[in-house]
Write a structure and sequence with these properties.
Order of helices and strands: EHEEEHEHEE
Shape: globular
Low-confidence stretches: none
Structural class: alpha+beta
Helix content: 25-40%
Strand order of the largest sheet: 1-2-3-4-5-7-6
Strand content: 35-45%
Largest sheet: 7 strands, mixed
CATH class: Alpha Beta
CATH topology: Aminopeptidase
Number of domains: 1
CATH superfamily: Gcn5-related N-acetyltransferase (GNAT)
């Protein structure tokens, strides 16, 4: 897998289309959750594209401190369903964490995680902060990595 990091303005129209289609496929269709994925924040984010054989199979978006939370943030973490068995989620998180550290000069990262993925994020150094909450009908928790 090859990772690309691009600002919103560096994305081609095809890349942007593929990202939005991918996010819709996972967050809206697969998770059966009606919500507004296009939230007006993509233009502030760095976009991490995980490419395999020329196809987008993994993705995150990264925010510097105060663009989403008070700390840097990683969000919209997704891997194609048929590619999850290869551990690409872990590769994606390691790359995304290192990109935050290198691009934003901070090691403190806050995420809003789906509760069922708590152990996955803990394996990358995140710890729950605060109480759980419901977002778009799905249980979530905030987690911080320092």
């Amino acid at each position: 897998m090859e990772f690309l990091v691009k600002s919103f303005n560096e994305l081609s129209l095809r890349e942007l289309y593929n990202i939005l289609q991918f996010r819709s496929e996972v967050f809206i269709v697969e998770q059966d959750c009606v919500y507004q994925d296009i939230d007006g924040k993509d233009d502030k984010a760095l976009h991490v594209l995980g490419m395999k054989n020329g196809n987008l199979v993994a993705y995150t978006r990264l925010f510097k401190p105060n663009d989403y939370y008070e700390h840097a943030s990683i969000g919209r973490v997704i891997v194609k369903q048929e590619e999850r068995k290869y551990g690409y989620g872990h590769d994606l998180m390691k790359f995304s964490i290192n990109t935050v550290i290198n691009k934003f000069s901070t090691e403190t990262i806050k995420i809003g995680a789906q509760t069922y993925l708590q152990k996955f994020y803990e394996s990358h150094g995140f710890q729950q902060v605060g109480e759980g909450y419901i977002e778009d009908g799905i249980p979530h928790i905030h987690m911080i990595r320092k």
